[in-house]
Design goal:
Layout: H1 2-13, E1 22-25, E2 29-35, E3 42-50, E4 63-68, E5 71-89, E6 94-114, E7 117-130, E8 133-151, E9 154-173, E10 192-202, E11 204-205
Antiparallel strand pairs: 1-4, 1-11, 2-3, 3-5, 4-5, 5-6, 6-7, 7-8, 8-9, 9-10
Length: 207
């Protein structure tokens, strides 16, 4: 048992340490489209730069920069635009309705790497605009995982993310009405979600 622990410690010690100036970036551009098909079809297209907003509320750091060895500051930045077209038959003709809306993500956090393990947290704010209606919500994000070396500076990333709502859902329309105008006020953001993920992560040194 003792020999096994020593061997494990030696293997762990060989794992590359991330020095000051190292950066890591996620997907910077994403485009997706879908079509339900059939006579009653719904089509949707999404373009995202930076962190992608999805119906499942997936929020992950867009980029990381190491200010100290093995300690990175993380940025959550995303600009997402959506276009949806709903088509249906009214008995005589086909009618199509189009909807455009956007979702922007902004936030920050930190991650600490210890050998091949990492853990961290961040906060993010999502603002959405949809036909004269604007809403904002805030989230606290915890993440952790394990990096398995594939090649130099490229790793298999096996991890998890826990997302929890913060504060209240706030909204306002073009007429100036907002949730603060009602007796019940703004609704508490009690959203929570747990994700398990497997992916590829690369690190690059600026020095």
């Amino acid at each position: 048992m003792k020999k096994m622990l020593i061997t494990l410690m030696l293997i762990t010690g060989l794992f590359a340490q991330f020095s000051i100036g190292t950066i890591s970036a996620g997907a910077l551009f994403n485009y997706s489209s879908s079509d339900d098909g059939g006579d009653y079809s719904d089509t949707e297209a999404q373009t995202a730069i930076g962190t992608k907003y999805t119906n499942s509320m997936t929020i992950q750091p867009t980029f990381s920069y190491f200010l100290q060895p093995n300690l990175s500051v993380d940025g959550y930045i995303g600009f997402n635009s959506f276009e949806t077209e709903d088509c249906y038959f009214d008995g005589y003709n086909e009618t199509c309705d189009k909807y455009d809306y956007s979702a922007n993500i902004l936030g920050g956090g930190a991650t600490y790497y210890m050998n091949n393990l990492y853990g961290g947290m961040g906060v993010a704010r999502i603002s959405m605009e949809d036909d004269g209606f604007e809403s904002t919500s805030k989230y606290l994000e915890f993440h952790g995982g394990y990096l398995h070396s594939l090649t130099q500076n490229v790793y298999l990333d096996i991890g998890f993310s826990q997302l929890s709502g913060m504060g209240e859902y706030e909204w306002e329309n073009d007429d100036g009405d907002s949730c603060d105008d009602y007796d019940d006020g703004c609704e508490d953001n009690e959203y929570s979600q747990f994700d398990f993920k497997v992916g590829i992560k690369a690190f690059f040194s600026l020095q």
